[in-house]
Amino acid sequence: MAGFSVSRYAPERSAWGKLTARDSLVRKLDWPLLGSAIALSFIGSLLVYSATRGRDSLTHGDPYYFLLRHALNTGIGFALMVGTIWLGHRTLRGAVPILYGLSVLLVLAVLTPLGATVNGAHAWIIIGGGFSLQPSEFTKITIILIMAMLLAERVDAGDQLHPDHRTVAKALGLAAIPMAVVMGMPDLGSVMVMAVIVLGVLLASGASNRWVFGLLGAGTAGAVAIWQLGLLDDYQIARFAAFANPALDPAGVGYNTNQARIAIGSGGLTGTGLFQGTQTTGQFVPEQQTDFVFTVAGEELGFLGAGLILVLLGVVLWRACRIARETTELYGTIVAAGIIAWFAFQAFENIGMTLGIMPVAGLPLPFVSYGGSSMFAVWVAVGLLQSIRVQRPISA
Amino acid sequence: MSNIPETGRTQRVQIRLVVIQVLVFSLLFTLGGRLWYLQIRNGQEYSDEARNNHVQQVVQPAVRGSILDARGVPLADNETRLVVSASRTDLLKMDDDGKGVLTRLAAVLGMKPKDVFDKIRLCDAKTPQPCWNGSPYQPIPVTDEATTQQALEIRERAEDFPGITAEPTAVRRYVAPGKANTAQVLGYLSPVTDEEITKAQDTDSPYLRSDQVGRSGLERTYDKELRGKAGVTRYEVDNLGRVIGQAKDDKAEPGSSVVTSIDARVQAVAEYELNDAMKVARTQFDKNTGENYKADSGAVVVMEAKTGRVVAMASLPDYDPNAWVGGISGKDYARMTSKKSNYPLLNRGIQGQAAPGSIFKVVSTAASVQAGYPFDGHYSCGSSYTAEGHTYQNFESQSHGPITLGRALEVSCDTVFYALGYQQWQKDGGMKPKKNAKDWFFKTAHQFGLGKETGIDLPNEVTGRVPDRQWKKDFWKANKDAWCEQAKKWPKKKDFNTVLAHENCLEGMKLHAYDSINYSIGQGDTLVTPIQMATIYAAISNGGTLYDPTVGKAIVSPDGKHVSMIGPKSHGKLPASAKTLKEMEGALAGVATRGTAAWRFGGWPQDKIPMHAKTGTAEVYGKQTTSWFATYTKDYSIVMTISQGGTGSGASGPAVRNIYDALYGLDDSGKQDLKKALLPTPQKSLPKIQHDGSIDAPEIKPYDPNSQKTPEEQTLAAVLGRRD
Predict the structure, then answer these.
(1) Rounded CA gap, A141 and A336, in Å?
(2) Option in B3, B32, B39 nearest A310 (CB)
(3) With an 8 Å Cβ cutoff, are B38 and A265 in contact?
(4) Which tops the pLDDT comparison, A392 or A47?
(5) A90-94 LR contacts (CB < 8 Å, sep 24+)
(6) Which residues have a Cβ under 8 Å from the Cβ of B328 and sit 6 or more positions away?
């Protein structure tokens, strides 16, 4: 808990000096993590621009419509990260119950007339001005935070070596509430991500193996039950069917995956060049600025460019893993592990579906896809990781 | 910045964090591997797909070349019609599969909705015509006879007719100048099939989805030349088909024209006369069957004797080739392919085969000379001939006592040829054939080009049949099982068929005396086509050269600049010396002047235009006799046949005479008026095609069968209602 207080006794420095001083906050930040995240966002904005500049029906004739909004979202996200670092994850710890409560309320609000349906999922709140909110994105963070808070409380206090069953059950119960709501939207993709987050959190918390395997078993049983009971909508079943056999209906459900694969496959080693992709220019891939943004990279930047995105994601995840391992409290470890599970699974699902190895689900690619809520949530998560890294003390 | 945990974080958590890290990176490696697989390993395949995806072809069909007669009169050309087409792909995207649109369309076009549905359904084994047998991705024509009003309505209310287009389009027209239908010779077009597209993909003349392909006749033989090259503009398009750039533009090249040796006027005469001869035949009583002749089908070939070029070729029953344009209707298709209509699609000039009867005797005569019998020897022409216990009647002539071969040919004496055929059979070993049997009669027939195609430039010519030893063996092998099965009833059952089956089962592979005897006069299992006989008689006329018959005479480029002639080609010489040919000519002239055809050539100016003829009346088991009439002058050879039509000279004689009259401009008394002559000598020059593609074609007047008659005869014909 020494850290920052030392500076109080140091001689006065210029503002720049303060920022760049050996022991300053800025110096302590995980720069490879931040650099990779910024690089991903930059590539993302190029890809979003490439994917949308010709889509007049979406852009109302302004080719920069999405680029500007994407840049704005990234800027807000960046600011949220700075704010999160500034506050620190430990300070936020106190506010976690409130944040959790707020996020559950927001998710519930979607079910009221405020909510809107996009692509089959009733998961949005339209704000106006072309902006909309997808509360399930924030819920991903609050689930991580509330579970981490509960699970780490007595361990960090030194009372226990591992969280006890009661605490685990309580944490799971709190995670289940928003998940159930999101499931009802239905936003199956987000529920899948949340389930993986819960798994990551449980693993990192040191909870008994029984819980981990029990959760895996419950997840499998739940999936089977959902399938058997016919709780899935037709469009969801169709997505799975198209995944199993893309040739099934190339003009219908299989169209997305087929076109996505053609786009990526045709990129070859070096791609067609930015803005030169015929699949992208011809708008053959639907939802290409959001869920299918990776296809733009695949086609226009080729194996090298798409591979670079994988490498940058790899750096983010590698640094996050380091942060999880090196932080001194279980709370930080759990939060970092939750974020790792979130980013890793969401990126895998998103890229995997464009490559045809995962079924289609409406999930954005972290940092890269167009979409405000996702962008904000992802950058807040980066803020949390950085805060854990710099061991920011509880501010007054 | 190594951090030793300050709190006592357990080993369990540390291990699990490593597990998480390993899992995370294995996910990333999976993605990387898959990315490599798609982009590097299979990249080419996907770039090809992407190219197909975004390049849309707009095809500008090439104008198909015309088929012209020898003087440039178009037999098949193109006219612009308003074609209303429906795109299946667009219609199937609609909730009701386009039923609503098509029903509205039917109302505008004044058609029944069902007819419209039928027109655009795809052909398969279970779907009867009408149906579309072209590519399902090509707009399918619903009608090519839309009025301007209808087309305007469809275009103005485009929102009511998604997937429907109304465009002026060049469509095939079979002109039938002067009523010269020429149906089977011209052939017809139908849309290219997916199979054909695939097959022709890598050749130098690939098909486009919009192509029409020649299915028979000249349209098929010269399809490649006529088709030209469609113009293709390749546009880069987006997912909605909106054009975002132009990739390639190939202008359409119109097809070349095919100049034929057909003379539309002669063709019209031939068609008229054949039809008329058949009509007359149907009024004649057949004593053998006790009913009128059926005259169910017939063919006539008019050929240039010195080149093998076909001046006219008619086959009945025929059809209107325009019925195929714009998709054939169910009714028309059924009519054209039904047994009841007697298969009008067949070109009986090259696809009709029948026993030749006595017109075969030129082969037997040449065979006898080859076998060593002197032409001027004396051969007994009795009223019947007995061999091996069977008696064979002299059908066509009376007994004449000993006569020369020439005279036997002239009077068509069967018994002379029976004897020669039987003697040769005996010489070759009879029922126990020698190893190297001479088989002069069969050998000669093969040398005359029988039993194989003449090589005419029309598709699906049939070979006819020379029933030689090899054929007997093959035929026996193919049928012995059935024969021997039926023969098991023998000797309990002794009806004709069982006895025959018994004999065939035991000895069907052998050449019998009766086979050779029947064969010597062109009866029995012998089959020939009119084009084969026309080729043979032309060869006798021209000194012995068997020409491959041709209908196409030249291929002329659309601008008229490039002409490639289709020259006469020979497939052999007649196996007869010049002397023998001359002697045969004398005999055949005798047929026309004093023999079996003389009564049909009354008043013919034999001194100016020497006429040679041979009649034939072939027996067909279970049917009425086939009428054959083979003739030639120094320039032309004309062969006519009428199935179940009666005798050679009786049924076909007047028609052939009238065709000659028209060719040479003769009246019944034999007076020549060259102004009236359609083609006193074969057409040598080619029609001139201007650089803009237009042709100076002479006007054509329909054939007036009475124009050659003297005024008195015309009056008489009018009173009697028919001629002769």
Answers:
(1) 11
(2) B32
(3) yes
(4) A47
(5) A90/A331, A90/A387, A90/A392, A90/A393, A90/A394, A91/A392, A91/A394, A91/A395, A92/A145, A92/A384, A93/A145, A93/A149, A93/A331, A93/A394, A94/A394
(6) B129, B130, B190, B336
Residues 63-102 of B with CB under 8 A from A: 93
- Residue B174 and residue B321 in contact, taking contact as beta carbons nearer than 8 Å: yes
Separation of first and last alpha carbons in chain A: 13
Interface of B with A in 6-25 (CB under 8 A): 6-10, 12-14, 16-17, 19-21, 23-25
Task: Write out the two tokens for B602.
Answer: 């009354």
Instruction: Give the burial string for B650-681 (b: 16+ CB within 10 Å, else e).
Output: bbbbbbbbbbbbbbbbbbbebebeeeebbbee
Q: What is the pLDDT of residue B448?
A: 95
Q: From the CA of B39, how many Å to the nearest CA of chain A?
A: 4
Structure confidence by residue, pLDDT tens digits, A50-99: 988 877 777 777 889 899 999 999 999 999 999 999 888 888 888 999 99
Domain ranges of chain A: 29-390
Q: What is the DSSP letter of B681?
A: S
Determine which of A27, A161, A275, A325 to mutate to test the interface with B (most B C-beta atoms within 10 Å).
A325
* List of domains in chain B: 56-260 (3.90.1310.10), 264-319+343-355+528-583+596-720 (3.30.450.330), 357-520 (3.40.710)
Cα–Cα distance, A208 to A205 (Å, whole number): 9
**A266 in contact with B, Cβ within 8 Å:** yes
Sheet holding B310-316, edge to edge: B310-316, B297-304, B636-643, B626-632, B612-618
pLDDT tens digits along B447-497: 999 999 999 999 999 999 999 988 999 999 998 888 888 888 877 877 888
Rg, chain A, Cα only: 21
DSSP 3-state of B612: strand
B35–A310: do the CB atoms touch at under 8 Å?
Answer: yes
Write the DSSP string, B94-132: STTTTHHHHHHHHHHHT--HHHHHHHHSBP-TTPPSS-B
pLDDT per position as a tens digit, B674-715 = 888 999 999 988 888 887 777 878 888 888 777 655 555 544
Distance, in Å, from the CA atom of A206 to the CA atom of A162, rounded to the nearest integer, reads 6
Q: Which residue has the tokens 């086939």?
A: B626
From the list B657, B666, B646, the residue with the least C-alpha distance to B707 is B666
B402, β-bridge pairs: B380
